[in-house]
């Protein structure tokens, strides 16, 4: 979306009637609205979003962070019913935790021209433990119908005043009216960081306030920020985006320092050097790297006869992957500690990869931890402690540089789990200094499919095929195949190709990571050709052809993220039905993206009663700048057209 268009959307009000945003004042006009004027395709829309985050002081608890939420949502279609369920994420750490209170909610419907409301029953509000760090309070609104308006409000009380949830100004459905406020006492100094494409400028002013300590009044000033926006367009998920939240318009408030009366200034983070220093000096990070005694005897026995650094790295990497199971928790700080993780043979990301780093150092290998932000966590644009949520291991010997992640059983050197392929990581080197390193792989991951098939005059094909996968494609396949019952895996394969019947299925090298994965099977599939009169029409790529482009937007402001370079090769040998000959066939062709970003080769020839086809589709880079979007969109359109061109057979 272009900034000019956004400005017009933000400044132009489409509302035809005066709206009352007080809680409970849902209008008949809101209930009668059949579609969103800003986006007629929207299945729901926020009629109003309100948030106020501020501090309150009590003698028992000190300063506490309070967030008030009030939202009004219009449900246009059944697909929008999901917005009638509201999850509230609540953080906790040791004995401290956030709490949601004062939940009040109603569903409004228009019945015989009258507005009727249905109240949310308290027994339908549920709190569940999602993890050791997070709880969730959730409710689903009652009596939902197409055309309903739902409205709810609540407060969240938080002891974690250094962690302010982002003020998000753009969602996957439109917002008609948004009002947001942030108020911070003079003792807290926050740094404001903005992201996204909407032009957002807060109204800022200082106000006087006071709190009581015993019978003493304490006067102070507070900084107040207010945001008022109207008619905000939706920002929806798109294919090949590392995290849409990177581009969703939002403001974050990062605590820089606190300065309480009669207390020294306490700094939190102002630069990446500060962030890294704080992390490195933590006993749950740098302190864990220095621990060796718990594994020394085991590592000595493992590498005592090996001096080659490459072999030492391989042995220790496989040892950690096989011994310590990842418990699914992210983070760059240890939870129970590396010693406990080693003893219990289970740990979080930090425990596993800090342990790996420490073991490699013990073995005489240069190894450092690397802070990473996972794809879902987004790109750390500003120096914040929350910018990173993951840690991997950097290794260097001779001229070789490796990135390792021992949380994934099927990862290999420089083949990280897809979740970790997110722009750049930050290596923490000696004494807590840091440097950036590219996380995207340079090597191309391949999938080569060889198919020998016979087409009969009814349009059914049968034959055998083999797929050979390397790099990230092999890791993804192993992770899927090895964690699934084979019968279920075959069933999923048959469903993926919409009814193919698979027989004599086998997989080789599914656990031998230094070799390509090889999948073999025989197959039969009906309806792979159209029979019209005495002619047969079919695409020689059959069920492997691409039918729909992932790139549908007219324009795109954010990069296209493929994750890694890839090469998909198809080598097909097709025997034609008896008594038929080729009347027409596609021409061989070559497509290229600019600046060697990718290419598509389609080579076809007929020899006797067989057709030989070789298709090679390459993306040479992991990420494509939005300046190439028009070229990429056109390229995929031409690719799909080529893959769907048909051979026409007639009787001899």
Quickly list its features.
652 residues, alpha+beta, eight-stranded mixed sheet, disordered N terminus
Could you walk me through the main structural features you see in this protein, from its secondary elements to its overall organization?
Helices cover 17% and strands 41% of the residues. It has 652 residues and is of the alpha+beta class. The strands form eight sheets. Strands 6-5-9-2-1-11-14-13 form an eight-stranded mixed beta sheet. Strands 26-27-25-24-31-35-34-33 form an eight-stranded mixed beta sheet. The protein has a five-stranded antiparallel beta sheet with strand order 21-20-19-22-23. Helix 6 runs antiparallel to helix 8 (349-362).
- Give the helix tally: 11
Strand share of the residues?
35-45%
The dominant shape is: globular
Physical arrangement of strands within the biggest beta sheet = 6-5-9-2-1-11-14-13
Helix content: 10-25%
Span from first to last CA? 55 Å
Low confidence ranges? 1-17
Q: Total strand count, please?
A: 37
List the SSEs and their pairings:
Layout: H1 3-11, H2 28-32, E1 44-58, E2 62-75, E3 85-93, E4 96-97, E5 99-111, E6 114-119, E7 125-129, E8 134-140, E9 149-158, E10 167-168, E11 175-185, E12 188-195, E13 203-213, E14 216-232, E15 250-258, E16 266-267, H3 272-280, H4 286-289, H5 296-303, H6 309-323, E17 325-326, H7 338-344, E18 346-347, H8 349-362, E19 366-372, E20 390-397, E21 400-404, E22 424-428, E23 434-438, E24 445-455, E25 461-469, H9 471-481, H10 486-496, E26 501-508, E27 517-525, E28 530-532, E29 535-538, E30 560-561, E31 566-575, E32 580-584, E33 589-592, E34 598-607, E35 610-619, E36 623-624, H11 629-643, E37 647-651
Parallel strand pairs: 1-11, 17-18, 24-31
Antiparallel strand pairs: 1-2, 2-9, 3-4, 3-8, 5-6, 5-9, 7-8, 10-15, 11-14, 12-15, 13-14, 15-16, 19-20, 19-22, 20-21, 22-23, 24-25, 25-27, 26-27, 28-29, 29-37, 30-36, 31-35, 32-37, 33-34, 34-35
